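Task 17 of the worksheet. Students: predict the tertiary structure of the chain below and write it out as structure tokens. Keep your answer in the requested format; marks are given for formatting as well as content.
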Amino acid sequence: MDARRRHWYFAMMGTCVVLFVTAWSLVRLWSVPAAIGMCLVAMVIPPVAAIVANRRGPNERWFDEPRDDEPDSDAGTGDPESDAWWDELEGRNRKDHRR
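Model answer:
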């Protein structure tokens, strides 16, 4: 995760916590509807923070995109044991090809 996105995520989540705590420790003494409104705003923040934190940057490779140095996207992981496990899982190199 990019440092800038991490900072935005923690700032948003910190704001969420501050809104909840302030709403029910201080604001409810003066106005319950205002405290409920603050909680509703705080309720929207965590999904937005997750979207911000998981957004792909322009220079980041997505998990299923082939690398530029990989000519074939089905080249494998480079670990023979892992490649054999995936081949077995996907039904490749089986003696009986019953597909």
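Marker's comment: DSSP finds three helices and no strands in the chain. The helical segments are 3-30, 32-54, 80-90.
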